[in-house]
Amino acid sequence: MPEDHFAGRVAAGYDESVADMFDPEVVDPIVDFLVELAGDGPVLELGIGTGRIALPLARRGVRVQGIELSEAMVAKLRAKPGAEQIGVTIGDFATTTVEGTFSIAYLVFNTILNLTTQDEQVACFQNIAAHLEPGGCFVIEVGVPGLQRLPPGETFQPFTVTATKLGFDEYDLASQGLISHHYRVVDGQLEVTSMPFRYVWPSELDLMARLAGMTLRERWSDWRREPFTSDSTKHVSVWEKTASLSHP
Ligand SMILES: C[S@@+](CC[C@H](N)C(=O)[O-])C[C@H]1O[C@@H](n2cnc3c(N)ncnc32)[C@H](O)[C@@H]1O
Question: How far away, in angstroms, is 28 Cα from ligand 1 center?
Fold first, then answer.
């Protein structure tokens, strides 16, 4: 099982540390997009966390199941109203199986990058394909690697600089590795967290999808379906299951 980077202090402060991501301005377009794509079918969230997207989806009448590595994140979800409608399986979403098939599976907020090797990311696509109904879709929201903004020879790139928060990414180009370092002042105390990721290009994700019997159906720069262009810093991609391969 991969290491749980969301245990303890991270889970305890997760909702507050990404409070802007819980804003209805952010959440509503995601939920609208997923409701439309899901139709009548049940849906599967990989890395369901504290239920930022799963709970509002369930409130819209969608049957939601989740896979989640971190017991601490699930405990936070379980403490929220409406959580009783959501089934969660503890495990690694690259390999964990859940009973049933789904009209969509989704992986938001850069969470595919939590799988830190190409093999794990490929396994994730194959695992998801095995959970989708024929014609079902896999949706990913993830940043485009920020290498255009990384000067030659540089490995560090800031993403937040305020009086109480400092965040910077540390790139390792040879391994497509990325460590996000977060320094936050909370109640006068400094909290430091470093989390490893593997950055991945849209084209590499398309190939992973193809290996798993899925085909790109849509790619946008956000959940409101703005066009994906050379200037886009993130993408929302939808792959459709077009072939049935044997379970990994
Ligand atoms: C950035 S949080 C996103 C949580 C939630 N989806 C949201 O949008 O707020 C990433 C979540 O994925 C979980 N996670 C990371 N790697 C995982 C893995 N290999 N298998 C299952 N869950 C994983 C983490 O524990 C964490 O809860």
Answer: 20
